[in-house]
Specification:
The protein is of the alpha+beta class. The protein has helices at about 5-10, 15-40, 60-65, 75-80, 80-85, 135-145, 150-185, 190-220, 230-250, 270-285, 315-320, 340-350; strands at about 45-50, 55, 95-105, 110-120, 125-135, 230, 255-260, 265, 290-300, 305-310, 350-360, 360-370. Strands 2-1-5-4-3-11-12-10-9-7 form a 10-stranded mixed β-sheet. A hairpin with a 2-residue loop joins strand 4 and strand 5 (about 125-135). The radius of gyration is 26 Å and the shape is elongated. The chain binds adenosine-5'-diphosphate and magnesium ion.
Length: about 375
């Protein structure tokens, strides 16, 4: 119990002298908190479920261009497009922790990482939001990775990975030959079993290594997107077709809902296939048998929105902020590059991704494609 709570608990017994002391104490505690919150570099906001800002520190005011003391602003007005792209704050608002990057154009052009945690106070649903300015970060990482020619380490790592591919290929061929030779040997059942098991493990490990290398190369040497007119719903259907068998084996039901007409975008259908594939694969891996997946698409005059909701095991609040980090995985056989590749491809499409999740309930991955890129086609 804080000292403030203790004092408040005794409120009924207070006379006017004590009341004055209490008010002074409250004012002091508030000033102290204000000083602390205004000293941090991160923007801190508290909003209600409609996005109205109930508290903001100085750094947040600077980032989103809010005059201090003006509290009647809605975060949704200040950051257009934010509302639709958040998995929470829908009609059947199911509060979840959310992590996403937003691009702000006012008062300055910057990229901000938004991390949002729900909490309740007096039965009211509120959200604590932390904004971190990642503009510099983004540009330096972008320069480092995107412009691989200037980064000798990235270039070197890429060529090493590439070089490993050749011997790996030949090991795999030799292993297949070996498997055939073993078939021909006259061995007792026990010895054959052991040998088959060892060969199978070798072959699995080779595939795993190959997967790691392929993903690594994809992550550090992204192909330039081959932009053309793209029908996102068609791309989604193609991916679901590829994953149909796996989904059926796990008895996972998939429900695709296209709420409004989805205009075509300028995109690279093959890269977008990788995006949807990775997102759906992660959803599958998070669900036990018999889970359900809902995919919803809708558009307004600014953006196309896609929401992938699964009934999987969810992501803890600490991990939500980490899932785009290279090599972050919670799976024994994961490589932690899937979401990195997803975000890289989406960035090349000018699209935004956000993740909302509730432990043991499920995860919603939301993507927002800006429509202004359509004009490039005309
Ligand atoms: P990998 O799938 O190889 O682990 P990813 O980059 O695709 O790597 O995902 C990183 C981590 O993010 C996963 O290990 C998992 O913990 C978490 N994650 C991603 N999507 C989901 C989801 N739909 N449900 C639960 N956890 C998820
Ligand atoms: Mg994955």
């Amino acid at each position: 119990m804080s000292s403030l709570d203790k004092v408040l608990g005794r409120l009924d017994d207070l006379d006017s002298v004590n009341l004055t002391i209490l008010v002074q104490r409250l004012a002091r505690e508030r000033r102290l908190l204000e000083t602390v919150f205004n000293a941090v570099h991160e923007g801190i906001l508290v909003t209600n479920a409609l996005g109205y800002i109930e508290y903001s520190n100085q750094a947040a005011n600077n980032m989103i261009g809010l005059k201090s003391g003006k509290s009647s602003a809605s975060l949704f007005k200040l950051v257009p497009g934010l509302r639709h792209s958040l998995p929470i704050w829908g009609e059947e608002s199911n509060a979840t922790a959310v992590s996403r990057e937003i691009e702000l154009n006012y008062p300055e052009h910057r990229f901000v990482r938004l991390y949002m945690v729900p909490f309740t106070e007096d039965n009211e649903q509120l959200f604590a939001i932390i904004l971190t300015d990642v503009t510099a970060d983004k540009f330096s990482t972008a320069e480092l990775i995107e412009n691989e020619k200037t980064s000798s380490i990235v270039l070197l790592a890429g060529s090493v990975a590439h070089e490993i591919g050749n011997p790996l290929n030949s090991i795999s061929i030799q292993l297949q030959l070996l498997q055939r030779q073993v078939q021909k040997l006259s061995l007792d059942a026990e010895a054959r079993k052991k040998m088959d098991l060892s060969l199978a493990i070798c072959s699995d490990e080779i595939s795993r290594l190959d997967g790691i290398i392929q993903n690594f190369l994809k992550a550090i040497r992204p192909n330039e997107p081959d932009f053309k007119e793209t029908d996102l719903v068609q791309v989604l259907e193609d991916v679901l077709h590829i994953q149909k068998q796996e989904l059926e084996n796990l008895s996972i039901s998939v429900n695709v809902e296209v709420v409004s007409e989805i205009p075509k975008i300028v995109g690279d259908p093959n890269q977008l296939k990788q995006v949807f594939f990775n997102i759906i694969k992660n959803a599958m891996e998070a669900m036990r048998e018999g889970g359900s997946m809902k995919i919803q698409c809708h558009a307004d005059d600014q953006n196309i929105y896609l929401h992938f909701a699964d009934s999987g095991k969810g992501i803890s609040q600490e991990d939500v902020a980490r899932i785009f980090q290279p090599y972050f995985t919670t799976k024994n056989d994961g490589n932690g590059l899937g979401m990195l590749i997803v975000r890289r491809i989406l960035r090349a499409h000018g699209a935004q991704i956000s993740i909302g999740s509730q432990k043991d309930v499920g995860t919603v991955v939301s993507i927002e494609f800006p429509l202004h890129r359509i004009r490039l086609l005309e």
